[in-house]
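=== RUN LOG ===
request id: a7f3
mode: sequence -> structure
chains: 1
length: 136
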Amino acid sequence: MGRFFQAAIVDLDGTLVDTLGDFEAALVAALAELGLPPVPRSFVRDSIGKGSEHLIAQTLQAVGAPAGRAGAAGEHYQRHYLAINGRHAALYPVALQGMRALRAAGLRLACVTTKPTAFVGPLLELTGLAPLFEVS
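=== RESULT ===
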């Protein structure tokens, strides 16, 4: 007979951590490096949530850049994001308390996100959430 356990699967960006500032900073830096104009914060907010490839494609379209620049834009974006990961992000006020309460209730926690794996661990560490999650 298998062992039964209860778990909670929790999203990261926009649920536990407000990472809009990180997305915006990395995107603005990548666009500047390509000689392209920045996009408004509201555009970034409305374009995130479907992965960085989607964000880059939407942004290039919005600034009128050729789609052929997606590869370079993506590389610049990832590099800038890695450099600023978590610096412009904020843990939502009750996120840490909520995750601690779930753990105290005996739930095992797993973090899911479309964010590249290289960014997840450092962000969880920076926000103090890392010790609470078994899987990220």
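=== NOTES ===
The chain is about 50% helix and 10% strand.
Strands lie at 7-11, 17-18, 90-91, 108-112.
=== END ===
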